Amino acid sequence: QVQLVESGGGLVQPGGSLRLSCAASGLIFSRYAMSWYRQVPGKERELVAVISSVGGSTNYADSVKGRFTISRDNAKNTVYLQMSSLKSEDTAVYYCSVRWRGLNYWGQGTQVTVSS
Fold first, then answer.
1. Cα dihedral sign for 56, 61, 65, 69?
2. pLDDT band for position 55 (50/70/90)?
């Protein structure tokens, strides 16, 4: 069974930085693209960033380009989201996700709050 466990969220001031981590198990991690999403109450879940299986290709939502960086360590079965220059509108629950055998799997999410 695929399991994804996010960590690294918290409270940060505007302009600050955080690094989220997502540890994966139950799959051959290096074979799959990984994604980060975020969601605020009352809104649809939003795709933030995607990284290819070997990390050679990344894509970002326009709202985070130039501020967020997705990366992965296939030896550690972990994907990261480095967030910098954080804004209040980045406040959300952040989820990592993988599509495995035709199904989307999600972690439990980690709360990021950007506030002074």
1. negative
2. confident
